[in-house]
Queue: 4 jobs
Job 1
Amino acid sequence: MAAKKLRRAGLSQELCERLTHYQITTCQDFLCLSSLELMKVTGQSYYDVQKLLRKVSQACAPKMQTVYGMKLAKSVNPSLAFLPTTLSGLDMVLHGGVPCGSLTEITSPPGCGKTQFCIMLSVLATLPASMGGLDGAVIYIDTESAFSAERLIEMARNRFPTYFDSDEKLLCMTQNIHLYRELTCGSVLKRITSLEEEIISKKVKLIIIDSVASVVRKEFDTKLQGNLAERSNFLARGASVLKYLAEEFSIPV
């Protein structure tokens, strides 16, 4: 949760703008600085800086939850707890579909249809809740240049011909799917750490990365000394950010 933007930590807009001037935009950026450094960039006293540190720390600390509370929250409206895949057998195994508020990893040998499945999930997430969708936007991070807009439209038309019966509805659906092509580990990490405000402004209900394995394989040869540690560090940092986004906004990732 250290990736949370300072604007959402309760700091004033004026202070956030001042901190942005020094490239301090997240709770992590803020908390990594010493009190002396914060006094310099904020122009505030030691006492006021300590209050800011407590405020930011509380904003990014995970709130305590009981198991009963978590179960109750999902039981109030079970339809909001999952994104159904519309594949009855798979939804049965997953107890309803792809879970909201957590990370889901899809693995298989090459050529088994992982990208096709992700494209279909993108269509499903844009559907209204009455059709089992999430009625929201999608962020699709493509690391293999495998995403096909033509295939997206074809799948939408074939799977839901009654709903997508006009070019207007297809246009609305495609405008709600935001595609980013990130071809390196660094660019993927930079992208996901900057998604928080975009999730809010665009009402994003699903995040897809297709795929993490692709950029990791290209950049890290685990036979070379030191690469295994760097690879593990990248995966841990990425998973931490994605887990925070999934839990903070109750969306499937």
Job 2
Amino acid sequence: MLRIRRYASGMAVTGSESASRRRAPRADAIRNRETIVDAASAVLAEQGTAVDVREIARRSEVGMGTLYRHFPTKEDLVRTVLRKDFTEWAETARAAAADAEDPWAALIDFYDQALTGYAHHRAIMEHFALAVPVPDPEGLGRLRLVIEELCVRATDQLRPGVTADDLLLLLVSLGHAVQITGECRPDMWRRLLRISLDGLRADLPPLPADISPDISRVPANSKAGPERASG
């Protein structure tokens, strides 16, 4: 009887351990997910969010069933990829600014890096606008903190009245310029950036106080409902 109890107890432990192993993601499942995300990142950068997810499955060399298991809807996949890519984009721009000792050079480097990355990622172009929900609110928050820091560093070199909201809206506006001129004159935004930054220099008259931007009052469009991952 004692042997039976010990055996039964041992089976219970073994069964529990086996169930735990089954619940843990397998190495190939983790690898497939990473492959899908990497492929989706490249495709979304090239083609934007209108891409058919069958192209993502083809690039990642997995079946549609595998893609569905990881991302039941296209929206799930796009949101996951854009959150990662947006964070990396914002961090790259922050690092570029941090490397410059001169405050004005830091401001230029920030915009250069941010808009260069923006120009090479169609999906971020489509989502990084204050009129639509951004893919990574936390990433946008970090980006805003960087802009606020740049604004403080360059206080003596910035036109009186310029705020962090002005600098953030300038980034959004120049981002739209990248979209408009991207195919016909892909480097036009660099000229517009220099013109815009020259208008922020400290030797110009103060900006009118009654037209200070208030980003919190910019309306947000509603997003469409979930879309099946079939594209």
Job 3
Amino acid sequence: YIVLMSDMVRYEHSPAYLTLNRLKKKAQQQQIEQVDYDKSHAFKTHTFKGLNWCEFCGNFLWGFTAQGVKYCGFSAHGKCSEKLPADCCPDLKNLRGVFGIDLTTLVKAHHSVRPFVVDKCVREIEARGLRTEGLYRVSGFADEMDSLRMALDRDGENADISAQVYENINVIAGILKLYLRLLPLPLITYEAHPAMIRATQKSSLMQQVAA
């Protein structure tokens, strides 16, 4: 039995492997569903047309102009918006593209752990670009990068970034850098930046991690 199961070809098609693989995918999916992010609503004053009611208190939105506030399809009185918890879950139809949108908004809208742009680009780079000289240093062609950016904004996770469409891997790496550069809040936030600088000044790796 051990000899039989050690055969890689047979093992990958065995019931044991398929069962373990299915359980692993189920656990990963449950982990994604359990991820929670605090995201405050970014309400803006809005002039509603027709009859509208506050989705928080249920009362009518009175007035002719600027009757209340609205964000991600949620309408409310200005005072009611201040009482809402930081549990904004934006709808994909209310997002215009992916570039320039903060991380929390994007991952909550897609119910993911990481932005899909990062996952798609990293997978493609690791699949065919790790031996490319100047990776992440050499820039891709501007017209191809513009085309890829529009494709990601338009098609989202269904955008085709394969070698058949974008042969130059520097275009994929450049788009990944562009996405990170256009984030409204950087990966290392302004609050964490001073602590990061202090940590890099430590002499040993253990001290840097502890800092």
Job 4
Amino acid sequence: MCLPAVLCLMCAVLGGAWAQYNLQPQFSPGGDMAGFSLPEDTRPGAPVYRLQGTDPEGGLLHYSISGEHFNVDRMSGVVKLIKALDRETLDMLEVIISITDESLGGSEPNTVSLRREIRVLDVNDNPPVFQGRPYVMSVAENARIGSLLYTNISVTDRDSGVNAELDIKCLNCDEFDIETIKIDEGQYAVAVVLAKQLDYESAPGYSLILEASDSNPLFRLTATASVAVDVIDIQDQP
């Protein structure tokens, strides 16, 4: 066989092999759910993302997503939320997204998959809670000003960030004051302190009203609690 004929045969063989080689598709930047997050109050049924990719041969692509919270239109790549979210129950979703091309020249389709973590963002949907109520305390009328009188008050908030930053105050404290200590995010300890001298004969008891508010700048949630104070009489009259 002459050289030109051999070269023609080799080109035909290599060309046929190349034509049957199916290159892998790729997810496009901005279409691969990298860094994607979702507010916990997103409505089920709402479109939340669009997967996008490219195929070197220009063929059709098909999309899929794992898990129980999402589905995807396999042709358009539009992802919808199908199950309600609750950050306080689950703050991170793990999914596998996949893109598949078409078979080419008898070759098998290619599938490329990526693992993604989707952060569930907090919304202000939990009010502060005064734990361990009712609050009842007793104090002798001769207790010294500045005395720490009651430390059994705990306030919590299940939200996060500014939604769990609490401002706690007493609405009707005159003879008393409160001190607040942040234990952890959304967890506070409150103590009642004596601010003025007591007199059983003038006031044998008090009902203090405490208020806790979160720090959301647009939509604050508030809770209140009462503290019953019994003043103990001390023999101070002749």
